Amino acid sequence: MNSGFCNRTSAKFFPLQVKFSRQVLALFCVIAAIAVYFLNPFGVSHQAALVIAFATLMIGLWVTEALPMPVVALLPLILFPLFGIAPIGPTAAAYANPVIFLFMGGFMLGLAIEKWNLHRRIALNIVRLTGTSGDRIILGFIISTGAISMWLSNTATTMMMFPIALSVVKVMEENHAGKKGMANFAMSIMIAIALASNFGGVATIIGTPPNVAYAGFYNKRYNETIAFADWLILCLPLSLLLMGILYLVMVKWL
User: Fold this and answer.
1) Which end of the chain is more exposed for a tag (fewer CB within 10 A), N or C?
2) Both ends of the chain: CA-CA distance in Å?
């Protein structure tokens, strides 16, 4: 009876405790931002010190998750005009940068692929086409992971492929129990997925966020736009070469 009472009491008051702790974290972030502004460790101007303080506040709120991440991302829309750092027009215009919409398009594509299990179909069909021997299964996962990572972020691709690889490894271990090399096979397929997602992300401009960031920097620095096709022509051969080397390393040395 006492145990049940304690459980009900904890369940009743736990949300209040979580809410209170987030309030404390948010207050701590505000105090840290104010301290950074008044200490001004870099000796910069008033407006620059405000920007550093707001950056400290936003980073703290993101790290502690005291506020939802999208809410924190929109704080400059309020803080910059309020403290005279920048007018609302230029501040809002930064949120309409083409790079932002490119990110959004990639995320939407990833959500659609995940919703309809397209990544699973691609992976299983490629593995079926390449064959069922250990080396060919690794090749199939390298190809499928690289192909998916061309259009999705590397982390998302790895997370999608990981459970598929685990199920394949489990089946292989059941069918080839006690055979030499099974431990190396499991290790190879996991390493192959992690690296192939990075190599595949090199191929397209939306394959990984750093590509998009670099394209935006290049456009701002040199006033030239990197076309999707130009990036693909330049980087796809490099991506294929890296995945080929990865396959050779996985099957020859592991």
Assistant:
1) N
2) 57
Query: What residues contact residue 15 under an 8 Å CB cut-off, 6+ apart?
Result: none
57: CB partners within 8 A, 6+ apart: 29, 30, 32, 33, 75
pTM attached to this predicted model = 0.63
Q: How far apart are CA 230 and CA 117, in angstroms?
A: 30
CB neighbours (10 Å) of residue 190? 17
Q: What are phi and psi of 43, to 5 degrees?
A: 65, 40
Distance between CA 232 and CA 254 in Å, rounded? 31
Separation CA 154–CA 156 (nearest Å)? 6
Q: How many residues does the chain have?
A: 254
Question: Distance of CA 3 to CAs 7, 8, 11, 16, 162, Å?
Answer: 6, 9, 12, 21, 40
Cα–chain center distance at 254: 28
How far CA 105 is from CA of 76, 94, 198, in Å, comes to: 23, 17, 19
Q: For residue 101, what is the enclosing H or E element?
A: helix 98-115
- Give the Å distances, CA to CA, from 75 to 4, 15, 52, 183: 43, 25, 14, 50
How far apart CA 186 and CA 134 sit, in angstroms, is 10
Per-residue pLDDT tens digits of the chain, which is 254 residues long: 444 544 554 444 444 444 458 888 899 999 999 999 999 888 899 999 999 999 999 999 999 888 998 899 999 999 999 999 999 888 888 888 777 777 777 777 777 777 787 777 777 777 778 777 888 889 989 999 999 899 888 888 888 888 888 888 887 777 766 666 677 888 889 999 999 999 999 999 988 888 988 988 898 899 888 888 999 999 999 999 999 999 999 888 76
